Amino acid sequence: MMFKIYSNILIIITLFYGFIPFTVASSDCDTLSSFYSYLKGSLLEDFLLYKDCCNVVGITCNSSGYVTNIEIKNFENSDADFKTAIKVATGFTHLESLILTNNKSKNGVILPDEIGNFKKIKILNISSNKAEKDSVSTIPESIGDLETLEELDLSKNNLSGSIPNNIANLKNLKQLNLNGNSLSGTLPYTMKDLSNLQRLNLNGNDELKGYAPLLEHGHYCNYSGTNLCHLKSDDCSSGISGCTIQEIQMTNKENGAPEISTYESEVCENGDKTKTTAGGGIALLIFFLIMGYCFYRCCCRCCDCDRPTFSSKQFQTVNVNVNNTNNNSDNNPIPVITTTPVTTTTTATTATTVPPAAYIPPAVTNNTYIYGSVNNGSIINNNGETANQAPPPYTPDPNVSGLYAPPYMPAPAPAPVPVPVVPVQPPYTGYPSAPSAPSEGKF
């Protein structure tokens, strides 16, 4: 009897606990149904097609059936009410990530005051959402109640107003992105207490002013497009100049600093105040100087490409092997000179054709006679001998084995050749008369 009673109790307990996950999942699915009903349009239609809400696109559930992640991107519907939908989403007790990006509706995405009711949220990304008409939204004070939050991205949502002071309560916050909004005022003094904050992006909020907070573990900071300034010991100060004493005192009056003299020792010197802009300007100047120099060299090279450039050595060594059979009593070597430049941009060496002349050059031997350099107008050969002048240009000898190309000069006129006088013979008048016969008796 007792065994039967305990068996029944055990069965009841098992059934009860067995239905708990189903009951919880049904509760989250009901909440999700309400969430989509405010977004309407194709999202609601797609949701109704699924029997299990955990299979809906953009929805993630854990093993127990609790909704842990909601992601909606690139959705357009004029009638969508994102503000109320976010308020409904705070009813998910195990929700860790809510991502609403690149969506468009009549009023855009307005953050409700109930946004601080998320219990386990770690990632809250409500960014780049557009409105069909001008709408104004602010960052609710309740944002500071999200103690489990690690990543907060509210960029490009047309947010205005100031950053709430209790944002410093987000002790686990690692990334904060508020760029592309219209936030104004000074940054809360208590932001320095965000000890885990590593990335801070405030780019484009041109009405933010005062000094940026000193972040203990800040690795990336973007303050471009703002009127913020950085303190002297701030290592995360991209895009802004150093603070003056007046800027520090003004900030201390508005950001909740304990004293007006707070951070007065963090005044930047003149060099530090402009270190970011001056450094960038110097780097830019150096870059343009280098580019200008390269452009100048390229232009000069292009302009002078057809102009030969002569080196200091005006004559080039030429070896001449000759075999001249002409008879000449001088029997001296012919020195060969070439004015072909040693180094030219474009080299084109062609033998100059000299009109034939009745000039017989002196005999040339097989010796090599080289003119190597010029010293004070005198030509020095390879034997160290100095000639008073360069030898005359000779017409090419057909017996020379190597061709050389001296500059063309007409050969000297040949000496006149005397014409021998030939006596003129008298005209033929016939044979002479025969001699007369001797007289008889006379021998």
TrEMBL record:
Residue intervals of the Disease resistance R13L4/SHOC-2-like LRR domain: 90-203
Domain of life where this protein originates: Eukaryota
InterPro entries per record: Leu-rich_rpt (IPR001611), LRR-RLK (IPR052592), LRR_dom_sf (IPR032675), LRR_R13L4/SHOC2-like (IPR055414)
Keywords: Membrane, Repeat, Signal, Transmembrane, Transmembrane helix
Leader sequence residues: 1-25
Pfam families in the record: LRR_14
Transmembrane segment boundaries: 278-296
Cited SUPFAM superfamilies: L domain-like
Name of protein: L domain-like protein
Natural source organism: Anaeromyces robustus
